[in-house]
Amino acid sequence: MESFSLILAIVVVTALAFDFTNGFHDTANAMATTISTGALKPKVAVAMSAVLNLVGAFLSVEVANTISKGLVDESGIRPEVIFAALVGAILWNLLTWLVGLPSSSSHALMGGLIGAAVASAGLGAVHGDVLVTKVLLPAIAAPLVAGLAAMFATRLTYRLGRKADGKASEKGYRAGQIASAGLVSLAHGTNDAQKTMGIITLALVAGGSLAPDSDPPLWVILSAGIAIAMGTYLGGWRIIRTMGKGLTDLQPQQGFAAQTSAATVILASSHLGFSLSTTHSVSGSVMGAGLGRKGGVVRWSTATRMFVAWGLTLPAAALVAALAEWVCGFGDWGTALVAVFLVASSAAIWKISRREVVDHTNVNDHDGGPDEEPSGVVTQAMAAVTPPPAGTVTDDLSATIPAPVPTDPAAPSAPPAATTV
């Protein structure tokens, strides 16, 4: 019983550690556009997001129930399986954070849980219908729906505001952007904090501390909300830079449209119990907003890297979790070895990240690095033939025109004067 109690405590602590990484990994979802457009200062933005994430954790338990009751068979799950799943999810979160890619923490957790469950109890431990209808289909639909909504909302916003005073309109959209960012933060707490609640609840059921089909206890809801809020306040500045500056350049009107569209999709999915990726939703809405403005662009090199990360998230986390579960199967020493590996790997990733520090002081710097698209041939050609401003005379445009030769034979034969224009 003592050994079981220890492993259950390790699972709970590891789950909260995942929740913490989820917070700083997904801060960009709520605040990247607000920070990049200057609507809020970086530290103020992440503090506001942290508080609203905590509040959102108390609004619903539908997503938590999807994870704890629907995705895998509770009867075939041991606490070690959940621990292995969390190892896969945490390491994927940290790796994608290191390279500044906004991947899905939700799918990392789903992949880890699936991989560990299959390694422990076989394919029958995973409920395929729940996986398809409440995880995979929303993963495809969410960015498309949010992107299209943001694109049309951006076009409508610019059309309605084309006759409005520029400064007053921009000020109003900044205020609206702050409100919509708060809504995204609330939605993120409602959706993502519940995933950790579901994992802890599943561990308690697997360990016999809770009856099957139980809802998350209050202490689980509170601890998950606090953990994700703390991670959010820390700020995942690398991903904020990618989402706010590396994917497209947003104006306040676009930021408002993007965040409102994403928040609507996330809150609707939370109500329906879909384990939606807030990263997919917000990234899709940011790209849609970028395409919705006339002359706006999306940096497809960054978007392509992001799509690749999305596709790798489930299988990569599942593979790491399956290997971790295999090692845990050797007994207590195997579980201890996996724990040491997790701590050492996390420390190594953090140390590597210190080589190039990104924080609130330089998060909006974008120096044309690998995420910057080169100018196209047409753009360069247009710049080359742009005429000088009206009324400007330059030396390059001056010309010397000879004066006309006099036709009067009595006129002196002095050389004609030259006129410079």
Q: Strands, helices and their partners?
A:
Elements: H1 2-36, H2 42-56, H3 62-71, H4 79-98, H5 105-121, H6 128-160, H7 166-206, H8 218-234, H9 237-246, H10 252-272, H11 278-292, H12 300-328, H13 332-353, H14 377-384, E1 400-402, E2 418-420
Antiparallel strand pairs: 1-2
Oligomer state of the chains in this structure: single chain
Number of strands: 2
Please, how many domains?
2
Question: What is the overall number of helices?
Answer: 14
Share of residues in helices: 55-70%
- Terminal Cα span: 99 Å
The overall average pLDDT, rounded, is 77
Tell me the fraction of residues in β-strands, as a range.
under 5%
Largest sheet: 2 strands, antiparallel
Structural class: mainly alpha
What's the arrangement of strands in the largest beta sheet? 1-2
What is the radius of gyration? 28 Å
Q: Which parts are unreliable, with pLDDT below 50 for 5 consecutive residues or more?
A: 367-400
Shape: globular
Order of helices and strands: HHHHHHHHHHHHHHEE
Describe this structure in words.
The chain is 70% helix and 1% strand. The protein is an all-alpha fold and 421 residues long. The chain has two domains: 2-353, no CATH class; 377-420, no CATH class. A two-stranded antiparallel ribbon has the order 1-2. The radius of gyration is 28 Å and the shape is globular.
